[in-house]
Amino acid sequence: MTAICDAMVNDDDWSDLAQFHPMPEIDHQRLHSYRSNRLKNELVKADAALCIMFNPISMRYAVNYRNYALFQSHIPTTYLFYPQQGPVVAFGAYEPDPQGFELRHGRPVTYFDGGDVLVAAAEALADDVVNFLSEIGTDNRRVAVEYVTPAITQALERRGLEVIDGVMISEHARVIKSADEIACMRWSIAVAELGISKLKQAIKPGVSELQLWALLNYTSLANNGDWHDGRMLASGPRINPWLQEASPRKLESGDLVGFDTDMVGPMGYFADISRTFHCGPAKPTLRQKQLYRLAVEEITFNMNLVKPGIGLREFQQLAWPVPEEFQANAYTCVAHAVGMCDEYPQIKHIFRMENPYDCQLEAGMVMCIESYIGAQGERDGVKLEQQVLVTDTGYELLTNYPFEPDLLE
Question: What CA–CA distance (Å, rounded) separates 342 from 261?
Fold first, then answer.
């Protein structure tokens, strides 16, 4: 770690990281208006008077709420009443300088805050909902609620309210991105790719997986990013099977090093990029090159299927045929949408299951095309992922970081 730290505290490196990429020109009012219209249109489609939001991703999308997002994800202390018509109101014990919404005192919705009085708190929250509906002048008694305890649902139903899944409101709203959202995403991807370049520069025998991951994490934070959904970096014998998070293991010459950024970056938009590097001074083996070429082939083939109008099940049927020896360890999906996080929709591998739902790709969606190639019982594997915008005629590649020439020889 000393060598990495010495490199990072160099004045030029710190300046490069902290001031890498100025915020793009974004009309924030237009961005907010677009997202508000998307949410309200989904409420209209669902004939719901309001959506009660607890998910930090939904609240970021709705009102750019950013406070304590990871804490909020498992101990929600703040929630929104987001109505079809009327003002947005936030409920919480304390929020510093709330902007764009009214703040009112909230009810405990977790055991951390409410303990054994959660049922009573749920009754009080249900009363708040009834009073709010009266306040905004609607007789609509259909409300959408994101992930909550059964006590809240039961309390709402006891007051004659019809409860539907709020996640369908928020997820469907986020599916189609505006030009401003894409600008935010490009910014996040640029920051992630700077982190990738720093990570690659530090690869050498003796450096640990955690030290490499820290460079990616630091670069995001230095550029006003938020968090990574995981610490998905593995090397050597830990790269196969995939989905093993970064560990203290130190790299050895000849190792493959794979990672997935899973990064909630600046403005809350996701950079979801996977690459696999090789640790010298040993040269890549023929098998490592073969695995890498197959992963590139899968990614390229499936990207070329991306176009508006193609259905998920049609895509699944047409996707690159994963050779049988790699099917057991193949990635969890062929492709998935992305926005402020991994989002609906998702395409599964045909050899595992028929896709559980169907819809069509539309212009304005952003999709991540996935590949993992590694055979059971073998040491090596290769993880790659590209992020693409669905356009009117096909796709635009948003990911700029190149594939590895020494693994494609």
Answer: 12
CA torsion angle 385 212 408 186 (round to 10): 40
Alpha helices in 47-114 (DSSP H): 56-63, 69-74, 111-114
Distance CA 119, CA 108 (A): 10
Is beta strand 162-165 parallel, antiparallel or unpaired with respect to 142-145? parallel
Q: How far apart are CA 42 and CA 58, in angstroms?
A: 13
Contact partners, residue 298, CB within 8 Å, separation at least 6: 320, 322, 371, 373, 384
* Cβ 347 vs Cβ 336: under 8 Å: yes
Residues 200-236: tens digit of each pLDDT: 999 999 999 999 999 999 999 999 999 999 999 999 9
Are 187 and 24 a contacting pair, CB within 8 Å? yes
Give 352-371 pLDDT, tens digit per residue.
Answer: 999 999 999 999 999 999 99
Distance CA 290, CA 286 (A): 6
156-164, Cβ contacts within 8 angstroms, sequence gap of 24 or more:
156/126, 156/129, 158/126, 159/126, 159/127, 159/129, 159/130, 161/126, 161/129, 161/130, 164/46, 164/48
Does 284 sit behind a cis peptide bond, omega within 30 degrees of 0 on the bond before it? no
What DSSP designation does 117 have?
A: G
Distance from C-alpha of 64 to C-alpha of 110, rounded to nearest angstrom: 23
3-state DSSP call for residue 179?
A: helix
User: What is the CB neighbour count within 10 angstroms for residue 43?
Assistant: 23
Binned at pLDDT 50, 70 and 90, residue 71 comes out as: confident
DSSP state for residue 376 in the 8-state scheme: T
Cβ-based neighbour number of residue 307 at 10 Å: 16
